């Protein structure tokens, strides 16, 4: 578990009103008083990300982050009627790829349409959301 993951886990506990003590596989982690600012900053990042995600929901579609990862590092799924019809994922070079489901295309051998590659997760999320009506929901 790296420092950012630890700070996120602590921030999540703070946001949820829990104590900020964190038990890990490596033992309990206690933050000194001068590290409180870091915890508050991490909590603020979690809240900002949760607020941004509220923008990605309407009567038919919703984008859900993979909860197994830090929100700013997480892949995400475009959901329609309880099933994934698109998503974003990070590329090996740190950029982000967004795509939506499509009908099977014999020529390309794929049932996925690339929306594009983006520098940031936020850009990929926005592009996925703007392209949600292109998803094949057959």
Radius of gyration: 18 Å
- Chain oligomer state: single chain
User: Which parts are unreliable, with pLDDT below 50 for 5 consecutive residues or more?
Assistant: none
Q: What is the H-and-E element order? A: HEEHEEEEEH
Helix content: 25-40%
Count of distinct structural domains? 2
- Largest sheet data: 5 strands, antiparallel
Global morphology = elongated
Describe this structure in words.
The chain is an alpha+beta fold. Helices cover 30% and strands 31% of the residues. It contains three helices and seven strands. The strands form two sheets. The protein has a five-stranded antiparallel beta sheet with strand order 3-4-5-6-7. Strands 1-2 form a two-stranded antiparallel ribbon. The model has no long low-confidence stretch (mean pLDDT 79).
Q: What attributes does this structure have?
A:
3 helices; elongated; 138 residues; five-stranded antiparallel sheet; 2 domains; alpha+beta; 30% helix; two-stranded antiparallel sheet
